[in-house]
Amino acid sequence: MGFMDSIDINEKYLLDNYPKILDLLLIDNTTKKNIIWATDSYKRKGYRFRDNISPFIIGEKNIIKPRSQKSKTEQTKRSKDSAEVFTPSWMCNKQNNLIDNAWFGKENVFNKELDNNTWEATESKIEYPEGKTWVDYVKDIRMEITCGEAPYIVSRYDTVTGNKIELKDRIGLLDRKLRVVNDNTNNKEDWVKYSIEALKATYGYEWQGDNLLLARENVLFSYFEYYYARFDELPSEELMIEVATIISWNLWQMDGIKCVIPESCQVERIVQINLFGEEDVQENGCIGCAKGDVYHHNGIYAKIMDWEKNKKVRYVDLLARGYTL
């Protein structure tokens, strides 16, 4: 699996061998166009904030890199301009452990935290509290907000150091679900069935398009790695497409404050002709932006998939019902 050995996914490889997969990793299911850059980091290369990301640009020019492989100057600039700060894996593990401590009602379920900001994975099969099953855990919905490269969801590498993490030591929300699937399935059919359930129950959103692509790639390639480790082969292209489709819905581009596509709110220009034949121009800004009202933006509200109902929903409507993923 040489093409997956590096932490930096080779988009040229995807473009040449799996163009449908790369298209899915770039699609914005809300706008039906590709995700936008939503950053000025690539302005000098000719790609503007609102430009859609082209598979040919990233495939041929290889310009999108994980944060750990960006220059220190670029890392500092993005932190200053976009408040981009990535969390080390030991902290992701600590916080994910807190979630599982509450779900299982006990500590050290998946690993034991050590004093030197490392951890030791548990080797025994996981036991479940009374009234809960492994399937409940797999289907329990989890979400990483402002997910960056998705270090809380999958931990292929430490996003700060760039060091790759072995499969048995991974600590992400989806990593844990796939470990549970591994523990409790005996054949490929069941493994695929419940691994798909695990994917459908794992969500995240991100503002910047390059980070979102990296997050989607990390989830996809993590799935490949778990599949390969279990069956000593890569998934079929049909399964790859199904997995990439789910990822394209579950990891989406959004301004997390406004619940819309970044910078999509507009000043509306209304032109009316008065009695004297003269133009009367009125410019109305976004009410939601003016009042800080998440329900009244005139931008493009992000849509996600409710897999249980197989129905597209606006994320903001989940908030209106007092429910979040």
Q: Would you write up a description of this structure?
A:
It is built from 12 helices and 11 strands. The chain has helices at residues 11-17, 19-26, 55-61, 72-82, 89-104, 134-139, 173-184, 188-200, 209-231, 237-250, 287-291, 315-320, and strands spanning 27-28, 33-34, 111-113, 119-121, 142-144, 202-206, 251-253, 268-273, 279-284, 303-306, 311-314. The chain is globular and about 85 Å long. Strands 5-6-7 form a 3-stranded parallel β-sheet. Strands 1-2 form a two-stranded antiparallel sheet. It has 325 residues and is an alpha/beta fold. Helices cover 39% and strands 13% of the residues. The chain has 2 domains: 1-253, no CATH class; 268-320, no CATH class. Helix 1 (11-17) crosses helix 2 (19-26) and helix 1 (11-17) packs across helix 3. Strand 8 (268-273) and strand 9 form a beta hairpin. The longest helix is centred in the C-terminal third of the chain and has 23 residues, at 209-231.
Offer a quick outline of the entry.
The protein has twelve helices and eleven strands.
How can the largest sheet be summarized?
A: 3 strands, parallel
Number of helices: 12
Average of the residue pLDDT scores? 90
Q: Determine the strand fraction and express it as a percent band.
A: 5-15%
Structural class: alpha/beta
The protein's oligomeric status is single chain
Helix share of residues? 25-40%
Number of strand segments: 11
| Secondary-structure element string | HHEEHHHEEHEHHEHHEEEHEEH
- Strand arrangement across the biggest beta sheet: 5-6-7
Give the end-to-end Cα distance, rounded to a whole number of Å: 34 Å
Question: Rg to the nearest angstrom?
Answer: 21 Å
Shape: globular
